Amino acid sequence: MKTARHKTAVATPGLLSPEQLDARILDLIARGVDRRCPDAGFNRLALALFRHQFARNTPYRRFCLALGSSPASVRHWTQIPAVPTTAFKDSDLTTLAPKHRSTAFHSSGTTEQRPSRHFHSRETLALYEAALWPMFVARVLESGPAVRDGRQGGPRVPRGDSSMIGRAGRTAHSTAVQDARPTLVILTPTPAEAPHSSLVHMMETVRRHLGAPKAAFVGAAALEDGRALAKAVQSSMLHPPSSILLLGTAFAFVRLLDAVKSLPLPPGSRVMETGGYKGHTREVPRKELHALISAKLRVPRSAIVSEYGMCELSSQFYASADIGLRPSTSGLFLGPPWTRVQVIDPETGREAREGERGLIRVCDLANRASVIAIQTEDIGVRRGDCFELIGRAPQAEARGCSLTVPS
Amino acid sequence: MTTGQIIAATARLWLTPRSPWMTRAKRELTAFSPQMVELGLRELFAEIAANVEELERREAPSFTFHVSRFALCHILSGNLPNPGIVSIVIGLLSGARNLVKPAAGDPMPALFVESLAVADTKLARRVKLTSDREAYRRADIVVAYGDDETIASLQKHRRQDAGATFFGFGHRVSIGVLDFRQSAIRIPQSSIIAAAARDASLWDQQGCMSPQCFYVRGDAAAFAAALAREMEVFDRRWPRVELGFEDAVAIARVRDEWSFRGRVWASKGSTHWTVVLDERSSWAPSPLNRFVFVRPVELLLKDKSKISTVGFAGFSLKEVMGRVRADRYCSLGEMQRPSLLLTSGSRPRVGDLAYES
Fold this sequence. Notes:
The structure holds two protein chains of two kinds. Chain A is α/β, with parallel strands linked by helices. Helix content of chain A is 32%, strand content 16%. Chain A has helices at 2-11, 18-30, 39-56, 58-66, 87-90, 122-141, 162-165, 175-179, 198-210, 220-223, 226-235, 250-259, 286-297; strands at 83-84, 103-106, 117-120, 183-187, 244-249, 270-274, 304-308, 317-320, 339-344, 357-364, 373-383, 386-392. In chain A, the strands form three sheets. In chain A, strands 1, 9, 10, 11 and 12 form a five-stranded mixed beta sheet that branches. Chain A has a five-stranded mixed beta sheet with strand order 4-5-6-7-8, with helices on both faces. In chain A, helix 3 packs across helix 4 and helix 11 packs across helix 12 (250-259). By secondary structure, chain B is α/β, with parallel strands linked by helices. Chain B is 42% helix and 17% strand. In chain B, helix 1 runs antiparallel to helix 3 and helix 8 crosses helix 9 (220-237). The longest helix of chain B is centred in the N-terminal third of the chain and has 26 residues, at 34-59. Chain A binds chain B through residues 59, 63, 66-67, 83-84, 86-87, 90-91, 344, 346-350, 357, 359, 375, 377, 379, 393-396, and chain B through 242-243, 245-246, 248-254, 256-257, 259-261, 263, 269-271, 287.
């Protein structure tokens, strides 16, 4: 019966099949991450995805209809009803039939809370991975000082399967590049320990692209103890002159930094931090955390990158001291061209003016099998194409990536 | 004149047309719109003017006509003016010296004492305002209003002083219970809806007697839709104050959450009022500022604790009392008009504060 409905939906005039949608999204991803997607093209694909999700995602369709919205009334991506992230706790917000749900990403949360569940099929997981890698390359591996002698600036790395990731996915096989490959250290549980963590899956995807060993993950046990974390980082530095690519949650970094007076990383090393604290450690404002990382790990500020993502999204946003090579965007989060961010004025429900605070709303075209318009509980300020992340809205439940660390 | 008579005269100063005290309160009490301040304070002072002498007769022992040497400290929360003013009134009736610590930025205690001085300078001198957070340490009796944490902290420290008496009034919530079936009520449904909207809107839902949820027998969705229309009507006449960013975010966030989980009716282009129909859970905290839930009465849990007031319509008092325990039961529409003559668990009795001198 489900298959029959599926076939009927595909046959609906104007409704693209999942395969057609995936092809269009992958085509957009293949154009690279530095060119803004023209509004008309973004809007066309967003509306096609909305029609698809309205037709196949039953709870979302009910939600839209309750708001008086349907494909007949929505003409622009900004009109697509955005679901609150909490809706992923309440319903299976997916276009996928149960038998096609091969992966479920869960939000971190306390055991009393029902987590968000974001389902993926093999195809949409491939889309997720295709979307994350070129952004990671451009924002984490290639941002920072332009000098690339192996000791300054970003480490040179192979870029993986070009058929999957297009321009940013060109494979580099030169011996020089292989030699300059950084040593990857991931301050999270292993994929086996956190099979439902989108963050850990992202880290695993990065690990595979970089050809790093599985031991790059420090694992859940080490995350319990700052000294164990320090030991894991130190042991990765046994083979100079390799630089270190150190990835982890803000909570893990605080635990690590609290345990060491100084732990200088080799020149050319880079750091990516993400997520919050969720009561695991003392909370440290991002600027202060970066200052601590810079001071104790001897990594220049320009080599420290912040990531913003959540299990309800399939794309990530990055901020660093020099993102986009424009001084005006320093410290601001920038997403890939297949996303758009709005900052919503909580009083009026309309888009806030440039420079004013509001709630961050993301339109993520890589969210093919769930809902592309997501209303977050995070407060931000829109600054051009970027946004400044202020923090979590008051009264919001503690949730996010950092709780993948067992308590 | 007795203390009660002086206080009644003071209340009448507030009720006269173009009362300078009311004018100042509307200007200085910026936590609410001027229209809301006027409506709320008129009701408060009308009640005081009507019943303070009867309260004196019922609750104040004869010796309170003497001046007590005991010091009574009032620690006020400032979320709305009523509890503080009533606290000062019963403190004066008890004969004690009153040391009042208003919440930061709350102008009402000072305005009330100024108006009291016009009626009787000598009685006004029995009230001293202080900004000293430690004032309660010098008092023989402490009456404190605030969040549970503050009350617990004050009580803990107070207990260390032998002989002191402490009355704490912490966080509580209120609810409405009503039968919305046409056959069940003898008054027009429109009156029920207007009464509910009034209870949920007055003082922008900041008091512990403000309902956060209405439990409905009958068509809860129809009641929610009708309540929403009436909340809009109330807001046009007595607008809610404009909120700061954090309060607006709290409302927006909960609206977003319930837009998926339940059904939301909300003011257009603002956070002024919100009605949420929730047919699944028994309780969820409201972000306040005129944000009210509507639920089927079957979801009302009998053992819900910390209920201040239950406003009801279409149910008998016996049936309501059988369904939920509370300090006070009243008709819908009267939830925020507590009688001065009843303590309702929201203040001590005058006699509790009276020490024979």
